Amino acid sequence: MWDRIKQLWRKDVPKKPLWLSEDEQRALLEQASQALQEGQYAQAESQAKELAQSNVADVAENGMRLLGLVHFHQQQYAQAWPIFEKLAERTQAVGDWFNVVTSATLAGELAKGASAFEQALKIHNENLDSSGLSAAAMHLYYACALRDRGEYAKAFEHAEILRALYEKLPQYDARLLDLRGFPPLDAVLDMMTDVLAHSGDIPEAEEWLHEFGHNLNGPVEADIRHAVERLHRLAPRQEPASQPEPHLGPITSRDLDALGPDLAAHGKEPRLD
């Protein structure tokens, strides 16, 4: 009886942020964010859980986001993606859906990651969230997550899309990339070489990179040269060709003649010792 009453008491006790003023909750949010940056995950997780129960909408959303990031930073991807998904369904923000993409993919939930990517891209294309990631950035970071899971063929699909996006730029320069929200070219090339190194055909991969550089409108020769060098460094070492088997047939007179007079004579004279 008393145990049941105690359980009811515990159930009815509000979470801590509900007792705090809005200013106090926001101060707590800053503390939790700082704890995450400093790697104090236990503190950040405890505070984020409290903030996620806030009756202030944006504080609760930031608390949920922070809680997902606490797990993500500790590579606890299986715990992170359901939190991000619940938040994304609430906010319908590109960034929140994309957090589902990366965490689910890294957790091995490839179908969930692909579905979340389509949702993030759909919202982006409908301009429902103009502050979100660019399409180019999403393709890059999704490809990186797939690469990290060893899904090189799937990652290459996004490398192809990125190549097309960059080749459509009227002029390649860092300022234009920044204005359009495109990632730096060196980051894109790093991902591409990581993936192409596992293609099984390094000469063809090298040609692919050269064609990409040729189609870009700008001075990218040095970038492509470094990418090709990196590709060869990352490529799996080829096993040396096996040596031919030694001749095990009977020795002929021609074989003995080829040995020279001394060795031929040695070959003809049986040893008796």
What does this entry look like structurally?
With 273 residues, this protein is mainly α. It has a domain at 134-236. Helices cover 70% and strands 0% of the residues. The radius of gyration is 31 Å and the shape is elongated. It starts with a helix and ends in a 5-residue tail after the last helix. Mean pLDDT is 85; it is low at 9-17, 243-256 and 258-273.
Main sheet, how many strands, which sense, barrel? none
User: SSE order in H/E notation?
Assistant: HHHHHHHHHHHHHHH
Strand tally, please? 0
Count, helices: 15
Q: Specify the structural class.
A: mainly alpha
Produce the secondary structure layout.
Layout (H helix, E strand, L loop, with lengths): L1 H11 L9 H16 L3 H11 L5 H17 L3 H15 L2 H13 L3 H16 L9 H14 L3 H16 L6 H7 L4 H12 L5 H14 L5 H14 L18 H7 L1 H8 L5
Helix pairs in contact: 2-3, 2-4, 3-4, 4-5, 5-6, 6-7, 6-8, 8-9, 8-11, 9-11, 11-13, 12-13, 14-15
Question: Which features characterize this protein?
Answer:
single chain; 273 residues; mainly alpha
Short description:
The chain is an all-alpha fold and 273 residues long.
